[in-house]
Design brief:
The structure holds 3 protein chains of 3 kinds. Chain B is built from 20 helices and 2 strands. By secondary structure, chain B is mostly helical. In chain B, 41% of the residues are buried. Helices cover 60% and strands 1% of the residues of chain B. Chain C is an alpha+beta fold. Chain C has a domain of 98 residues: Rieske Iron-sulfur Protein (3-layer Sandwich), CATH 2.102.10. Chain C starts with 21 loop residues before the first helix and ends in an 8-residue tail after the last strand. The chains are: A mainly alpha, B mainly alpha, C alpha+beta.
Chain lengths: 508, 521, 162
Amino acid sequence: MNDPSTRFRWVLLLASLVTIGYLVAAALRENFLAEWYTLQKEYRQLLQSKASDDQGRALARDFRIELKQVSVPQLKAVDRCVSCHNGIDDPRMTGVRQPHAVHPGDILKNHPADRYGCTICHQGQGVATSFRDAKGDDVSWDYPLLTRELTQSSCLACHDVERLPRQQVALVLEGKKLFDEKSCASCHKLGGRGGTLGLALDNEGAKTRHQLIMVNLKPPYTTWRWHQAHFRDPGGVVAGSQMKNPTVTEHEALALTAFMLSLRQRDVPESYLAPDKIEQKARALHPQPLSGERLYRNYCFACHGDGTYGRWDTTFRRFIPAVRGPSLLATADPAYLEAQIALGRPGTQMPAWDARAGGLQPDEVKALVAYLGKSGGILSGKTGIFDRFAQNDNAPVLARGDANRGAALFIQNCAGCHGVAGHGGVAPELANPTFQQAASDAFIVTTIRNGRRGTAMPSFQPRVPGARSLSDAEIADLLAFIRALGPAARKPQTALVPNDLVKSGGSR
Amino acid sequence: MASTATRPDRTTATQEFLHNLRLLPRTLKDAWFRIGHTPESEREVSQATFHNLFLHIHSVRVHVRTLAPAFTLGLGLISAASFVVLCITGVLLMVYYKPSTTLAYDSIKDLHYVVFTGRFMRNIHRWSAHVMVVAVFLHMARVFYTGSYKKPREFNWLVGLALLVLTLALSFTGYLLPYDQLAYWATTIGANIANSPRELTDAIGISTWFDPGGFQKRLLLGANFVGEDSLIRFYVLHVFVLPVLLIMLLGVHFWRIRKDGGLARPEEPMGGPAEWGGSMKRVFEPLATKTYGLMALVKGRRPTVNRGPENTVMSWPHLFWAELAVFMLTVAICLILSFYSDAPLKELANPAVPENPAKAPWYFLGLQELVSYSAFMGGLLIPLIAWVGLALIPFLDRRPGGEGVWFGTPGERRVAWQSLLFGLLTSVGMLAFTVNFGWLRNWFPRIHQLWIIAINPGSILVLLYAGWSLLVLKRKDSVRLAAVALFTCFLIGFTVLTYFATIHRGPNWQFYWWPSQWPVH
Amino acid sequence: MPDLTMPAGSRLDPPRVNRRSFLSLAAIGSFFGAIGVALAGALRLPNPAVLPGPVRRFKIGFPDQFAVGSETRFEQESLFVFRDAEGVYAISAICTHLGCSVARAPNGFACPCHGSKFDLRGDVQAGPAPRPLPWLEVGRAADGQLIVFADNEVPEGTRFRV
């Protein structure tokens, strides 16, 4: 009769043979078929072929085929790139194929791999032992290998980029310049200064792919591809984005991307920081105030353009006033403008810019206002435009009239643009608390009388014979109604006007 | 006796010494193997089994049915073998793994990239863990369907249930150790399932004074969130506490098998017909008129050829061949899987970036689906009901008969098929309904949470299964068949829910037909 | 009473329980083979393929930065580099007693911690130090700089010819 355990012996035999086979196959695959193994063998042959003197021959002889790594505990890096990139510091390794080639440039003279590792500059998964894993552009690693042109964005971890040789950080510098030129800080804070419509960018370079919306991109999903696409078409990358298209070329988008990647708070030990970086950090504690023109370009240009005409913004669905319009500047006093800038217009896209909000110092606000007053254009050549304020035509201060009659007049003449309750939209928001607090009665009266050149606000007392005109009494009624729109009637809970601003004139 | 009596004449002490040195290999072997050679007679075989520390947990003889693969499918052995593989690979991994939130992830990367065989060891560890979990579930099903829990094996069934819980706990604690995104968020989900009593205590407003959910969660995590304390706790549980408990209970489990009389088998006369592994063959047909007959021609001195009493064979070598074969088969399968498929490792755990979808380990995904309807029901009550129900089976179905054979009771196979169909239709139907129409909160946004705890897809499925089982109880007039109905329903329900939550739930726990359709973030 | 002991080789003998067949040998052999291969791999695992921690290997500069007769101290790397007519050599500045950094003394080195004194070759002149200051291996890196392998000791007097 048959032995009940024959089949088990067969199974045992087969299973054991399969086991041995796979164990051996795994050992082979890991050691002799590994990428780094074959590459090191190639490199040894290269060393032998390039050995022209004793030293060269000694190097070829002493070259061991084993896993190599650079361990830099201070930078929390264990970089195994050197298992394949064996020739990075051998000047003879030119004209050979990668990964055997020598490191380009003379970066390694000041940044020896033993002390810095590789990933501090190049990012990527340093612990990996194959190139595909080292690239790290899939879900297994947060910071993939940077492309060649973007590697310079890592320099800012230890250096003040302004003090480096220009050609080595050209892209980052260009990006920084574009950032100011395109007035990105109008909406995005950097270093605590800027608008609030967009996200603060201080640590933008540290973002991983999971913190950016990738749904409108194609793989590979890296942060720099996102930035490049986003700069070219913000609304296409982020649905519903309020960001204006900065209209940049591909190269400019790349430069801006390099700048974005450089914005990264890194925890680098002090012994690794360059002296100029330490100086830069010290300087940042006491920033030099910028000129009015620079301030306007950095923080206002994105929305207000050159400021000489008002416009309807389709994204914000709101009217953007002409802040350098001659009519405004003719009627507004510096205190009014400072208040508007410092406090913003709550409820609209105009943020507050004072030191606690947008980050501008008081003297910077003043400089900005002075710049506005110096606007060229129609009234170029006129200095001291604010002097006109007190001497405006037909500008006796009117006492407030009857708000009920004013309501009817408002509906007829003003509500079409300013909204029934003065909430603006097509025209400025008269019910806005900042406006109400900062604008004086005379300002309102003069504006109604004279209109605003360059905008849709007509003059309601035109000195044209036969044209329709409001009487002084009617304007006084309107004034009363407009005042009733805002919260000026009661003392506000929070002081909207900081002490260091000149208090607005006018009666309440 | 003088020592010279044993020494041949004219040999000196030096010669004796050299002679003994030369014989060293043989004398060592003889000292180890008490009989000095591989056992030959049955008596020697019995002694070999009996006197060996590791082998004597087996009985000296086993019934032939123990060796029949189609009976047990070797599932118990597969579970034990994969556990052995897990222990060995686990210890090897422990040489390099560092249980600290700052070091764990890097140590796993090192294991993968630089440690010799590290990648392979980790893959084997992961795959054999999956194999073990699947095997213990299938083993439980096998034991149930062959009625092998009946007297006197009720206690062993309970030990087996405890082993099931320990296996799942081992798998769950091990899941956190790599401390990557998968691990972190799966543990967060698991801890929140432990927190599920909160749903009930919140709904009745007593959470401030009585919060077993929060207690469980804090006990598990050592904090309110997954962090260093959780990691070290899970590590201690995973490498020491749970394995020790498991090994102790495994010992009890194996010992009980023996004391309960070996694996369950049906009553049989001596010898047995061919379909039970016997070897008797009809040589001729007996005539009806004959009053005597030659019954069979056998070789050997006993009626059962090559069989001992009660149709048994010697453990050595047959059972040990079988065990070795199953062990190596398990090892070979784990190796093949590990060679081709790497254990996953995502980015370092980042509490600021939740995985979407954040999924528990696959064997908890069925639970997670139920938890998505009601945390308390799905996380606590239904698993508890299932587990207690399983434990009660041997005590509610006490009628002997039908054990040791698949579907041994008449009508059992039919009931099983019907229950499979019923369970499949109801669970798939319930899922389809909730996917298309939502549930109470969608239709009545202000409804009190207690209603949802009471009436949700999970509780409805439980009621349906219970109802079906009662129906079978009444109609077929058999406790065993009712048990078969209920067990089958739960098994298929668990499978369907696990499959559904694995494949068809995507980001935000929305329904998708295939993972390829999941939206990119 | 029939003799119940069977003659050897009878047809009616029960077969031996341990049928030694080629299959059994092969099965058991391959089983132990598999265990053996697995064990070999498992035993190799604890042997680190790469040593953790930074390798103590320092590039110290180009040979012409070291004039003949010069001595340079490298604080951070804890070593002295000398060059004489025969070549370049490096002596460790870590006292062999308990690890303090030795200072340069008029005729050699002196350790401020427990008073060990060494001569210019590193031999112990006085104090509790048990053995001389080790001489460290000097080599040349691929880019031409001198490189000190601070983990490798070389016999006293070994110089690297440049």
